[in-house]
Amino acid sequence: PLGLKEHVLPTHRSGLSNAGGNFFMAGVGFSFIFSWLLMLLVLITFVLGGNIYMVVCESWRSQQLFQLLDTPGLIPGFNLSELLGQEGGTTNFSEMYRQCQQDAPLWQTLHLDQSVSLDEVLNISQYKGEISTAFEKMNITLSPISLLSQDQKDTLLNASRAGQPPNFTSILEQLDQNVTEGSLLDLATELEQLADKVGPEVRDDLKADARQLRELDKEMQTSFSVPLHRLKENIHGVQRQAAQLEAQTNAALDKASQAQEFLEKETGNIIKNETWAFLEELLDFFETYISWAKSSLTGDVARCKPLAQTLDNVETITCDYILDSLNAFWFSLGWCTFFLLPSIILAVRLAKFYRRMDFADV
């Protein structure tokens, strides 16, 4: 446009204007030479981007892709239920994807309970019969148990007989009498009676001696009464316990004999019963562990939400980042191709107003 002057004849146009017209025609020539490559590129990217987006992305979001995969006979010889060992199963990709999005375990997603019965595989009760039979055949033999030998029994009997106290009857009779051989009170009374008969020079001494005797008797009664009473009680206690010693010894020996007979007869059964109780406790532990293993395997192990998230991430990367960009690319090139024909017509029409003409076209 800078080289174009309105009043100049076409045969006298400047070189700048002529170069502009040549560029128009060069653009038309390059367009005819390379436009098929542009059209082919638009076609290929359209077929790839547009069709893959509609077939994969749109069908993925509408779940039609999974319905297509679930169509029986889509892939010859492929049956997901038979592949998982399920007879007449209804396992399909749509249900698996939905359960994986809910973070369900693979045991539930793949319906493995239809092909593998955990109750049969992990059923410990089927082994209890064998264990019981083997346990009943077990024979427990123990060495003879002897709590007391015959010599020990004889020693105890002799000791109980030798432990009998002497006869305390005479001693108790003596303890019931006065501490002194005669009564001090009677002696004091006699001294007082004698004092009344003698002269006054001896009377006071006799009465003083009588008072001393009464005080001495009182003091002796106070000092000796409590120990004597305790001594009597101790003697009676010794007599009672000594009388029971031999009977208690015989009773203890009888109990020892009974205990020995009980141990000889029942020790094997006791050990067997306690061993069986311990074995049952171990079996309960195994059942508890098996229950935990079953619940973990069917409810906690191998949750497939990461798999669903991986598929969603692949769909996001493929559709939102790759195919959307590819669709924008071919859409832009398509508009360029669409405007290519008008631009060729316009360039041809404008070229004669810029190029230098050999003959003036009036």
From TrEMBL:
Keywords attached to this entry: Glycoprotein, Membrane, Transmembrane, Transmembrane helix
One GO location term (cellular component): cilium
Major place of residence: membrane
Any one GO MF annotation of this record: cholesterol binding
Membrane topology: Multi-pass membrane protein
InterPro entries: Prominin
Entry's transmembrane regions: 23-56, 328-348
Pfam family name, one: Prominin
Locations listed in the record: Cell projection, Microvillus membrane
Organism superkingdom: Eukaryota
Family per similarity comment: Belongs to the prominin family.
Record protein name field: PRM1A protein
Species of the source: Centropus bengalensis (lesser coucal)
Gene field: Prom1a_1
